[in-house]
From TrEMBL:
Belongs to the DNA photolyase family. The keyword Flavoprotein applies. Transmembrane segments: none annotated. It comes from Bizionia sediminis. This is Deoxyribodipyrimidine photo-lyase/cryptochrome family protein. Its cofactor is (6R)-5,10-methylene-5,6,7,8-tetrahydrofolate; FAD.
Amino acid sequence: MHTNREHINIVWFKRDLRLEDHEPLYKALQEKEPVLCLFVFEQILLEDAHYSKRHWDFIKESVSDLNRQLHTYNTKVLAVNSDIISICNLLSDTYHIKQVFSHQETGIQITFDRDKSFKRYCKNNLITWTESVNNGVVRGIKNRNAWFDSWNNYMMTPQLPFLAKAEQFLDLQKITTIEKQCQVTNLKTENNKPFQVGGTAMAQKYLHSFLGGRYKNYMFHISKPALSRKSCSRLSPYIAWGNLSVRQVYQAAKNVKTTGPNNKQLAAFRSRLRWQAHFIQKFEMEHIMEQASVNKGYHKLKKNISEAYQKAWREGQTGFPLVDASMRCLNETGYVNFRMRALLVSFFTHILWQPWQDASKHLSRQFLDFEPGIHFPQLQMQAGETGINNLRIYNPIKNSLEHDPDGSFIKKWVPELKNLELPFVHEPYLMTALDQQFNNFQLGVHYPKPIVDLKKQRKHASDVLWNMKKNKTVYTESLRILQKHTIDNRSKLLDNDD
């Protein structure tokens, strides 16, 4: 049946847009059949509310970067608007697809369902689909007893090199013929966007600049909304979309020759790579987290939805300067540091008393580094609905005074306040009528009055959530979660091996 058709293997790229340390590509190049590199811009994701144009532009830039690297090999990534089964059917008219290689994906429910459908498709069409572990996250495990040692061993295993010859790939002429039969994705993006640019080349620049010196203030500035933009690695989108593997980053950080305080900065950075994997593994094992709290006891928690509150929060118009500055910065640039992300979620779920599910899609669309395995566990942890984490109800004023003491971050992103005296930059609602007159500033006109009573709302959230910890279902679920996800030695997540 397939005697007149050329046999090929496909490497299906997903959140792994790189050539080096790419196990599916490495394995495919060990086979005798020519390799077709494929990325599918899937309609189910293009239409999904978790994603936005900034994500697709980042992916397009990443694919373009792959094509620049692959040009030497007289090939490129076939980038199409389709779905994986449709494009395989189209390819099967001309080629016999022998094998498909890809990474396992810890994605949202629709990608998991898509993978199940594709598995059936491969079985029915006698295609071998080989999936590789992605960044040490393991599918199908029941507990975390041996997880850390497995992850650590994965991180210390030598990286897989990209060693190829042009004749190992489907060539450009053949790919051009395929493109005439399908909807090819236009990979052009706008110039001068306020977002980090996708691709391994840019990822390497960020990695080198971080390990070349930016890391020295990593822990000192990690909580500062302005200073963290330079002192943190800023590698999160490149890890989320796979321009670099976590193993590449981990080993590069491990190989930096440094001593004393600087060594502690890098140890802290490596520890956060472990924490990242820990949360993705948790989501891999608890897919309910996309829709509902992992602790079933919190399913009984009901909150009255306020469209007005949610709109003010999304637009950075709550009357609390650090919250508004953080949201406006995120909306504009796709990035704020971890503490400001936690503040945004805490403010939404605790101070505004809104369900975390209503924050999920807006934040995922704004985060350039949207990673489902981080996104959903962190939402629930910051909302106080896991039952196992300490309840943190962030005070936006306290955080403002501690982490933006000169108001520089607020002044940049809430310019309405930049000419006020510093105390009013942090708390504009303290201005008397006379203060407003002197400053030619009117609360409620030039900047919103606080949309809620901070002290009252913090107390309400604290009372309700602490009381729920006594609930039998919350307690039972907490024990289940701890038993399933606690690493045998929690200190292993800290990088103390130097």
